[in-house]
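Quick one before lunch.
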Amino acid sequence: MGIVRKLERAVDVRRVKGDFPVRYTYTMPPHHERFFKTLKETGRFSGARCEKCNTTFVPPVAFCEKCFVRVGKAVDVADAGTLLAFTVAREGPGGERLPAPVVYGIVKLRGASTVILHKVLADPKRLKAGMKVRAQLKPANRRRGSITDIEGFVLV
Ligand SMILES: [Zn+2]
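Model of the zinc ion complex:
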């Protein structure tokens, strides 16, 4: 059998172990830079509101996906909101068993029209969609201006 063949059944997919080095540089667009700078320096969440349809994007975007217009108006939103959905990861990206389950949730911050995906720092047995959560940030002197400045969301 050659190295290239068509897989016809999903069970034929196999995992190939090895290294696949990828190097890249991510250039942050200005609207994301503002979001992370505000988070780092003030601990507040900022978004961008489309003045045509009033959608508030958090994190901010450059263009409204509904109206196809530039979104430039910066707005603050709350650091708390509603847990819309969640899942529990018991394995890491390499398939290794995690020492403890990690909960990931979809959170809609108060004042935002869009959602953020991040960790939920709570016992998954206690969680239900619709619960109120609040962002738990790293202490100000440890923030780096990245998504990891948010440690996760905790129940209010
Ligand atoms: Zn719009």
